[in-house]
Amino acid sequence: MLTLFDPKFQGRVALLDNMRSTFALALISLGYDPNTTNPEGITQARDFLIKNKQAIAAFAPDNGQHLLNQGEVDLTSEWSGDIFQVMKENPNLSYSIPKEGSIIFTDNMVVLKGSQNQELAEKFINFILTPEIGAKI
C-alpha cells in the first residue's frame, strides 16, 4: 500500500483534485495497472478510496505543494515540477516515487494536420520551447 494511505498520516494527505491521477494511485496500491479497464479493478479502486477517505485532508486543485510547504499536510501527490519548485524554498521537503510505482506523462503540443494557422502554431511552439520561456514556465 502506498505511504499516502498509511494510518499514521491520517488526515494529513493531499491528493490532486484530478480523477485520473487519484484513481491511478488507488489502482497502483491494489496492484493494478493504472490504465486498467478491468471493471473489477476499477470497483476495487473506488472502494479503496472510500475506505481510506479518512487519510485525505484535501483534494487539492494543483496546490498540494503549497499545502505541504505550509505544513497543512505531511504528504501530497502532486506534479513533480511543482514539488521541485517548493523544494528550492524549503530544504526540509523531499520528493520520492513510491516503490509500488507511479504514473508518468509528458506535456505535449501539437498542430492539427488541417490547421488553418499552421505557421503561427509552429512559431508559438518554437517560442514556448526557447530556454528563457521554458525556464519561466
What is the helix tally? 6
Low-confidence stretches: none
Q: Could you give a short account of the major beta sheet?
A: 3 strands, parallel
Task: Look at the structure and give the CATH class of the largest domain.
Answer: Alpha Beta
How would you briefly describe this protein structure?
This protein has 137 residues and is mostly helical. The chain contains six helices and three strands. A three-stranded parallel beta sheet has the order 2-1-3.
Protein described:
- There is one protein chain.
- This protein has two domains: 3-89, 3-Layer(aba) Sandwich (D-Maltodextrin-Binding Protein, domain 2), CATH 3.40.190; 107-137, no CATH class.
- Helices cover 42% and strands 8% of the residues.
- It is built from six helices and three strands.
- It has helices at residues 19-29, 39-51, 64-69, 80-89, 118-128, 131-136; strands at 13-16, 56-60, 75-76.
Write the layout of secondary structure elements.
Blueprint: E1 13-16, H1 19-29, H2 39-51, E2 56-60, H3 64-69, E3 75-76, H4 80-89, H5 118-128, H6 131-136
Parallel strand pairs: 1-2, 1-3
Helix pairs in contact: 1-2
